[in-house]
Amino acid sequence: MGLTADQVGVALRYYAESRDEIDTWIRTVDEEAERAEVAWRLERDLLGR
């Protein structure tokens, strides 16, 4: 992925310290993406594409 061992270590420590906040953010983003895809599919179907 192009990350150094130091960068991975920093990321892991940050996640360990902020796990609940990060997991909540990930769930929120996933939910928003799913809603956006559903809306896109509905619009696409309405347009007959």
Please provide a written account of the structure:
It is built from two helices and no strands. By secondary structure, it is mostly helical. It starts with a helix and ends with a helix. The mean pLDDT is 97.
List the helices and strands and how they pair.
Layout: H1 5-17, H2 19-46
Structural class: mainly alpha
SS summary, helix count: 2
What is the mean predicted local confidence, pLDDT? 97
**Strand-residue fraction?**
under 5%
E-strand count:
0
Ranges where pLDDT stays below 50 over 5 or more residues in a row are none
Order of helices and strands: HH
The best one-word shape is: elongated
Main beta sheet: none
Straight-line N-to-C gap: 37 Å
Secondary structure: helix percent: over 70%
Rg calc: 18 Å
Gist?
The protein is an all-alpha fold and 49 residues long. The protein has two helices and no strands.
